[in-house]
Design goal:
The structure holds 2 protein chains of 2 kinds.
Chain A lengths: L2 E3 L4 E5 L4 E3 L2 E3 L4 E8 L5 E7 L5 E3 L5 E5 L4 E6 L8 E9 L6 E2 L3 E6 L1
Chain B lengths: L3 E4 L2 E4 L4 E8 L5 E7 L6 E7 L2 E5 L6 E7 L2 E7 L7 E8 L11 E2 L3 E5 L1
Parallel strand pairs in B: 2-11
Antiparallel strand pairs in B: 1-3, 3-8, 4-5, 4-9, 5-6, 7-8, 9-10, 9-11
Classes of the chains: A mainly beta, B mainly beta.
């Protein structure tokens, strides 16, 4: 079985500041990793994914994440946030051979002016 | 129309009612999913369909009954629900590429369900 832990339920940050949203996972098999964003009253949107290759993954809206196998982490970063980045962010994993995602509990990013 | 579309966006029903949620995808995907998103809880996978066949049922109560008539449409039939079933129900689809699919899932905007 897999599990995903998002250590911070809420992250307040000022506009144009850098941000890091933390994600750790546990799994006995190899996994693929994803970050999704959910804006208010909308469904999930894929930000980025790690399947293989380079451990630094770049996604949409200026976000990037780094896969660290030894620390079983996949933290999401952005060097300078905007008010429009205010949303809920979900980390998720899928083990190879399965079709379904296991999600973390989410981190609410609140960007303040 | 593109992407994953869910209807209705909002639904209020009594515990004895029967209603259905609908999901339609225009992405040419072969796999479809139902998720439940409750307040303060992680997303929960409910059902997975691949090429119209149910491949996973994550211990969901029988008052939720899925139906997948083809790869583009997915329904969730609701009957005798409980107040704790109030949640956002999300549909998703993905392109199936063999048994080791790593394709990302595309989500709809969800149906907000309230049980009175």
């Amino acid at each position: 079985a897999q599990s995903v832990t998002q250590l911070d339920s809420q992250v307040p940050v000022f506009e144009e500041a850098p941000v890091e949203l933390r994600c750790n996972y546990s799994s006995s098999v190899s996994v693929y990793l994803f970050w999704y964003v959910q804006y208010p009253n909308q469904g999930l949107q894929l930000l980025l994914k790690y399947l293989s290759g380079s451990t630094l993954v770049k996604g949409i809206n200026g976000f990037e994440a780094e896969f660290n196998k030894s620390q079983t982490s996949f933290h999401l970063r952005k060097p300078s946030v905007h008010i429009s980045d205010t949303a809920e962010y979900f980390c998720a994993v899928t083990p190879t051979g399965r079709r379904a995602l296991t999600f973390g509990s989410g981190t609410r990013l609140q960007v303040q002016p | 129309e593109t992407g994953v579309t869910q209807t209705p966006r909002h639904l209020v029903m009594g515990m004895t009612n029967k209603k259905s949620l609908k999901c339609e995808q225009h992405l040419g995907h072969n796999a479809m999913y139902w998720y439940k998103q409750s307040a303060k809880k992680p997303l929960e996978l409910m059902f997975v369909y691949n090429f119209k066949e149910q491949t996973e049922n994550n211990s969901v109560p029988s008052r939720f009954s899925p139906e997948c008539p083809n790869s583009s449409h997915l329904f969730l039939h609701l009957h005798t629900l409980q107040p704790e079933d109030s949640a956002l129900y999300l549909c998703a689809s993905s392109q199936e590429a063999g048994p080791f699919s790593n394709q990302p899932q595309h989500f709809g905007d969800g149906t907000r369900l309230s049980i009175l």
